[in-house]
Amino acid sequence: MPDQLGEADAALWRGATTILAANWTGTHTVPSRTLYPHQWSWDAGFISIGLAHTAPDRAWRDLRSLFEAQWPDGRVPHIVFDPGVTERDYFPGPTFWAGEGGPVGSGRGNGGRPNGNAGGTPDRTFSAPAGTNGGPARLSSGIVQPPVHALGAWTIYRRAPGHAAAEELRWLYPRLVAQQEYLATARDVGGAGLSAIVHPWESGLDNSPSWDEALAAVPVTPDVLRRYARRDNQVVASKHRPTDEDYARYLTIALSYRDGGYRDADLGPRHPFLVECPGFNALRGAAELALARIAEVVGADPAVHRARAASITRLLVDRLFDPETGMFHPLDVRTGRRNPARCVNGLLPLILPELPAVQVASLVAVLESDRFGVSARMPVPSYDRTAADFDPFRYWRGPVWSNINWLLWRGLRTHGQVELAGTVRAALLDLVRGSGYYEYFHPGNAAGIGSPAFSWTAALTLDLLADPDPPA
């Protein structure tokens, strides 16, 4: 625990540490014990950042556990399933993602289908060192989540450098590069250099208004919710979760991708959801910058990663920025139209240090406007407060999320917005101090919503307490 913490912050630190210990399984950290009993991809990245301050060995193990399930084409699945958890405890589980072709597993010669591909051929082969994905099959989903893992790995190393930590980076580096290569090539469906997500779940912002227009065009598979029963709204209040209509489309999109063998080569003509998300691609750029730092440690070329980050930044500005709204907006690859909703993923390019000053000033103005209204009392909501369909309870359609505010805090610091960054940090810590380590929070009364004792909220609270002035 940092020496400078006062009594209230020391209590906050102890509470966060206790939650991360309680959610540790021995090989990885679950997001929560109530709703999320497996390992989630971007959760693992954020969790490793908190564990870097208290248990770096567990932080490294968390990332190893996730990347041991990496597919041969380089994709890192959004869920790695715990074989000790029964199918009835979480949906959609391994059986859903497998379909009729058997278990979706990672690796070669391990009992899983090569590339999880239902008879299809992988677009790219992950040529990792011998033994990378050996041992028992790791059952997983077939989609991805934002690549925050390089940032996590660099944070762990920065907090506790040394020979052992450098060895961990050497193990992770080729796998992190393969992850980035997969996103840069197989998912460049629009051909412009930005990655497309094939499902709203890949963005991490599942039911954000960012996807409403693209989702509306998805033909719902008849009776899909009769064939597949939801579990989330049996654990958490249904008014806090995506609607049945949205969920039916989520399942339809997932079934389309699954039944196409998780094949990316011809997504354009056959897959019903293809969107370039500004948040997802900004995190791709941030990952390249973290990889540049890691490359310097492991003896690789950092210039390649810096060039890729610069290219992603330029493409985001050219392709997804709207001068009229002053924000970035997702682009539907199928229609060529940008979604007009003002959502928090449109602010995330702030994390890129080479974002031009014009866009930085514009995003800061949006953050300080009535639409997002960051203040000493409340951090940034997930959606425009003034929108007619703003919903303070329903997941990514209004509530406040700690991981997004943590990213914005870092981005503001990066661009010299020290005072505003301090406001975001203080408001977020006060929110957790007053309401607990919830999955997300009501943007008006600050009540905790979703799962309690949530791991990334605890982990990022530790980072906020430990690093009030994070390095670039």
TrEMBL record:
Span list, region Disordered: 97-133
Key words, A-Z: Glycosidase, Hydrolase
User: Record's InterPro entries?
Assistant: 6-hairpin_glycosidase_sf, 6hp_glycosidase-like_sf, Glycoside_hydrolase_63, MGH1-like_GH
Q: Which residues form the Mannosylglycerate hydrolase MGH1-like glycoside hydrolase domain?
A: 36-457
Compositional bias (Gly residues): 99-119
Name of the protein in its database record: Mannosylglycerate hydrolase MGH1-like glycoside hydrolase domain-containing protein
A Pfam family found in this protein is MGH1-like_GH
Q: Which SUPFAM superfamilies match?
A: Six-hairpin glycosidases
Protein family per UniProt = Belongs to the glycosyl hydrolase 63 family.
